[in-house]
Write a structure and sequence with these properties.
Number of domains: 1
Low-confidence stretches: 1-6
Strand order of the largest sheet: 1-2
Number of strands: 2
Shape: globular
Structural class: mainly alpha
Helix content: over 70%
Radius of gyration: 21 Å
Strand content: under 5%
Distance between the termini: 78 Å
Length: 274
């Protein structure tokens, strides 16, 4: 009986992930329904973004507890993917619709809706591909093929948090200019991370490494925690977008280096043959 109660913990944590995703959608849907108070809109954006971050915490903890009690299996994997589709697919896509251009700019909003739709589809494809690869034993488990869906969701959520933080903590700024910049960044950035999720770009499995290594990663964890305390929202933007873009930059560098070596080898072969 005690063992069954322990196994329930990872399942509840996984379901907590989905609940946070639903709550994020609920808060984002309130935008525009309480008048046109810009401060209230920023508050809803921030809460919606923080709920997506909370979903990531549940997503990290459920896997950790599942491995701790040795209760990993197909049920947990499928449940995790279903919850991830809500929290890291539907919730960020809906938040993106509230974060970018509104219907006051119909063409831009239609473009944004297309990007949000693409983002949702790529998230679902990413999760399905990951399940198939895990079932067939493809990959080492230390690196992801394609940007993980929680990281992609973090990229979108961090922009909502940044917009809310600027409104709350830096009132003496050009609001329209900053908001316009974030709108463009959100639309173009979401398009990029959507494609990265279904790409061949390799990304390290940071959560698993941090939870497994313990003392060896203590300085990194402490530094990250201090950074988040001092500069919460900007730090999250740096962490999520840095993870996405550094991985892409590394992939481009490795491919370019391999291409140069291949061309150099072919040139040497021609010179030797001549």
């Amino acid at each position: 009986m005690a063992a069954r109660k322990i196994v329930i913990v990872p399942t509840l944590l996984t379901l907590g992930n989905a609940v946070c995703g639903l709550a994020s959608i609920a808060y984002a849907s309130r935008i525009g329904k309480d008048g046109f108070d810009p401060d209230l809109k920023m508050s809803y954006l921030a809460v919606s973004g923080w709920l997506i971050v909370a979903a990531m915490v549940f997503d990290a903890l459920d896997g950790f507890f599942a491995r701790l009690v040795r209760s990993t299996g197909r049920f947990g994997a499928e449940l995790d993917s279903l919850c991830d589709a809500v929290s890291f697919g539907a919730a960020p896509a809906f938040l993106l619709l509230q974060l970018g251009p509104t219907w006051d700019q119909p063409r831009l909003h239609q473009l944004l809706a297309g990007v949000a739709t693409l983002y949702l589809m790529c998230t679902i494809l990413r999760l399905a591909r990951y399940n198939v690869e895990a079932l067939e034993g493809i990959g080492s488990g230390k690196r992801f093929r394609g940007l993980p869906s929680p990281a992609a969701a973090g990229c979108v959520a961090s922009l909502a948090l940044l917009r809310g933080a600027i409104a709350a903590h830096w009132p003496g700024y050009d609001r329209e200019a900053v908001h316009a910049l974030i709108e463009v960044w959100a639309t173009a950035g979401a398009f990029l991370v959507a494609l990265l999720m279904v790409s061949q770009v390799s990304y390290p499995h940071l959560t698993k490494q941090l939870l497994r290594r313990g003392r060896t990663t203590a300085p990194l964890v402490l530094t990250s925690a201090l950074l988040l305390i001092v500069a919460r929202e900007p730090a999250l933007v740096l962490v999520f977008w840095g993870y996405a873009l550094v991985g892409l930059s590394r992939h481009i560098w490795v491919r370019a280096t391999a291409r140069r070596r291949e061309l150099a080898a072919r040139l040497d072969e021609r010179q030797l043959g001549g």
